[in-house]
Amino acid sequence: MFTIITGTQFGDEGKGKIVDLMAREYDLIVRFQGGDNAGHTVVVDGKKYKLHLTPSGVLFDARLLIGPGTVMNPQTLATELNTLADEGTVVDEKKLGIDAKTSIIMPYHVELDGLGESARSVKIGTTKRGIGYAYIDKVARDEVQMSDLADEERLRRRLEELTPIKAAQIQSMGGDPSIMEDETWIRTYIELGRRFAPFIADVSHEINTALDQGKKVLAEGAQGAHLDVIHGTQKFVTSSSCIAGSACANLGVGPTRVDEVVGILKAYITRVGEGPLPTELKNRTGDYIREAGGEFGTTTGRPRRCGWFDLPLVKKSVALNGYTQIALTKLDVLSDMHPLKVCVAYELDGTRLDYPPESTADLARCVPVLEDLPGWDGDLTGIRSMDALPDGAIEYLSRLESLVGVPFKYISVGPGREQTFIK
Ligand code: GDP
Ligand code: IMO
Ligand code: MG
Questions:
Q1: Among residues 29, 58, 169, 213, which one has the fewest Cβ atoms lying within 10 Å of its Cβ?
Q2: Are both 174 and 236 inside the same structural domain?
């Protein structure tokens, strides 16, 4: 059984929570793209785990894998694993595998990300984790892979080859090229290479073998459909493909093996960083949702921009991902708001659009067509079944489900694992 989970919006939909919830039924939990730009939160018994690279199934017995299509900062991973160990969860090489071909985020990628962003007159608002520059190097075939990191001699040879290119690039962007000769980080990376050498794995082979043996594999997406580097709101996107098909390509698993594709959908919409957000609420309602939903970035702490549920964008996610199920999150955040609004279409130059325009510049000009729903009063965080929901919440869910056209399987009413029910 092979299940893929992806974000339907602009990330931060609650993927970490739902992966943790589903993880007990899976043998392998796998990250397939992105890097430590992701921030996936898991809350169990009131304890919060913020995971950037470790797959969100870490609290169960499943084996975890980091696939070759990810970009991995070994310093972030080491810090994350140390914190988990301090809290009693030991992640050793039996628990976690890292593909030999995984691209390593080097300190110069982080430097270049900062320089690139400050040079842009129109910002993207990246997480400054070096993601884009690590992917540039992957495509340019100038990356350092996990297997290079694990072998000091190979790493040094690779750096010798790359240093003149990177130093020139850093200098041309106004930075300090001496970072390329700085033995401090190079020694740290050699140490990290030694630490993670035993974790090296062949992710595609491991997953395909597990599937042949009838095991269950869960692929955990990072970011969301509209941050996809190909289909998202370019240029305001991340540098990897975040849609379901990307899991197959990045993990080396044939599309014929996919059984379920689960979309994580927030009951409203948020975005962190720049780029169009047609239903954005730049007013007290937006501030209210941000506070009620704790909408501050898990990775950067930046306030997230908040808006009403945007159906055209979700329709596009459904098309891009081919969802078989939806997990609807953060319903509890919308309590006590009257009326609730849902964007059912856009208006652009006098024309009504049911689906987003393909050009980002056009999307930025779209005006939402809003439908009112009555809403409900009271706290939903203790509710564990559909029939215990207030009428207004049932009406909101039913309306969204019929508009989206994919069955809502899970309803989430709080950050905790137990604050979820099956519809
Ligand atoms: P991810 O990147 O998709 O994993 O999402 P994040 O972890 O970045 O952001 C989601 C935030 O919402 C986290 O703080 C979660 O603990 C929290 N969360 C998830 N589901 C719910 C929910 O149903 N209700 C509330 N109130 N919070 C939730
Ligand atoms: P999770 O997995 C929300 C956004 C950044 C920026 C753009 C490009 O937690 O949902 P990058 O550093 O990737 O080059 O930044 O993408 N972004 C995210 N927004 N959730 C994320 O991940 C994100 N990862 C990147 O804010 O706008
Ligand atoms: Mg997040």
A1: 213
A2: no
Per-residue pLDDT tens over the stretch 332-350: 999 999 999 999 999 999 9
Phi, psi values for residue 387, rounded to 5°:
-70, -10
CATH number, domain at 126? 1.10.300.10
Q: Which of 262, 282, 297 is the last residue of a domain?
A: 262
Considering the domain architecture, whether residues 109 and 89 belong to the same structural domain is answered as no
Distance, CA 50 to ligand 3 centroid (Å)?
9
Q: Mean pLDDT in the chain?
A: 97
Q: How many domains does the chain have?
A: 2
Residues 93 and 209 in one domain: yes
pLDDT value at 300 more than 90:
no
Q: What are phi and psi of 23, to 5 degrees?
A: -60, -30
Active-site position among 20, 27, 36, 40: 40
Rounded distance from Cα 156 to ligand 3 centre (Å): 34
Residue type at 347 in one-letter notation? E
Which pLDDT score, from 0 to 100, does residue 229 have?
98
* 181, 108: one domain: yes
Say yes or no: 96 and 236 in one domain.
yes
Domain with 40 in it = 2-100+198-262
What pLDDT is stored for residue 161 in this prediction?
A: 97
Q: Nearest C-alpha to atom 27 of ligand 2 is from which residue? A: 273
- Would you call 12 a catalytic residue per the annotation? yes
- Mean pLDDT of the 50-71 span: 97
- The encoded tokens of residue 66 equal 């980091």
Residue 299: what pLDDT? Answer: 82
Q: Is the CB of 272 under 6 A from ligand 2?
A: yes
69 and 216 in a single domain? The answer is yes
Residue nearest to ligand 2 atom 15, measured at CA: 126
Ligand 3 mean position, distance from CA 83 (Å): 18
Nearest residue by C-alpha to atom 20 in ligand 1: 415
Average confidence (pLDDT) over 34-45? 96
Give me the mean pLDDT over the 230-248 stretch. 98
Do 149 and 255 reside in the same domain of the chain? no
**Cβ count within 10 A of residue 152:** 16
Task: Give domain status of residue 279, yes or no.
Answer: no
Q: Please state whether the predicted TM-score (pTM) of the whole model is above 0.70.
A: yes
Which residues are CB-neighbours of 93 under 8 A, at least 6 positions away? 198, 199
Ligand 2 atom closest to the Cα of residue 132 is 14
The arithmetic mean of pLDDT across residues 375-398, rounded, is: 98
Structure tokens that stand for 355 in this block: 């689906």
Q: Which of 196, 215, 230 is the last residue of a domain?
A: 196
In this structure, the answer to whether residues 148 and 7 fall within a common structural domain is no
Report the 3 state secondary structure along 75-138: HHHHHHHHHHHHCCCCCCCCCEEEECCCEECCHHHHHHHHHHHHHCCCCCCCCCCCHHHHHHHH
